[in-house]
Specification:
Radius of gyration: 19 Å
Structural class: mainly alpha
Helix content: over 70%
CATH superfamily: Ferritin, core subunit, four-helix bundle
Number of domains: 1
Shape: elongated
Order of helices and strands: HHHHH
């Protein structure tokens, strides 16, 4: 991996990080999906997988434009987030609780990527690579939209459950 001694190399560092993060998620998302019971959440994860593929291809085009190889950096943070999701699968009771936990895990991964894309956009603009910044901005917008959809789904998964948990308490206090 190249030494990070200027803004161009710092941009490459972040692009390689997010490239590996997208790739690692595509490789590991099936483990998360197999633990999900909600059909709606499964559909959302399928959509997320297709979005990851699109983002991955966009990053490959950016690396081609830069005449650089995308490999060379492991996304340690994404690996940690995926390990956390795997741990939740092991320790969380199946059903809506696990679905909510995995929905949150996917959201954490998405938030990390939004942060990295934001950094890369700023760096691309700083080094005059405005076309690349625009491509990255398109991806970040899509990730933010997905985040809103996932937040709404998580609310749907959790709110009915929380109302059920409140009901016996309300009855016993009456």
């Amino acid at each position: 991996m190249e030494k990070v001694d200027n803004l161009n190399n710092l941009l490459l560092y972040h692009l390689r990080d997010v490239y590996d993060a997208e790739n690692t998620q595509m490789e590991q998302l099936h483990k998360i999906k197999s633990a999900i019971q909600s059909l709606l959440l499964t559909d959302v994860v399928d959509y997320y997988f297709r979005e990851l593929q699109k983002h991955f291809r966009r990053l490959e085009r950016i690396f081609n434009e830069l005449n650089k190889e995308p490999e060379g950096k492991k996304s340690i943070i994404m690996e940690g987030l995926l390990k956390e999701a795997t741990n939740l699968i092991k320790i969380t009771e199946e059903g809506e609780t696990l679905d909510a936990a995995l929905s949150n895990s996917i959201q954490h991964m998405n938030h990390y990527e939004i942060a990295v894309y934001g950094t890369a956009i700023t760096l691309a603009k700083a080094v005059g690579k405005h076309d690349i910044a625009e491509s990255l901005l398109e991806t970040m917008r899509e990730k933010k939209q997905y985040d809103l959809e996932l937040s709404n789904l998580t609310d749907e998964l959790l709110i009915p459950h929380s109302e059920e948990e409140d009901s016996p308490k309300q009855k016993s206090n009456a």
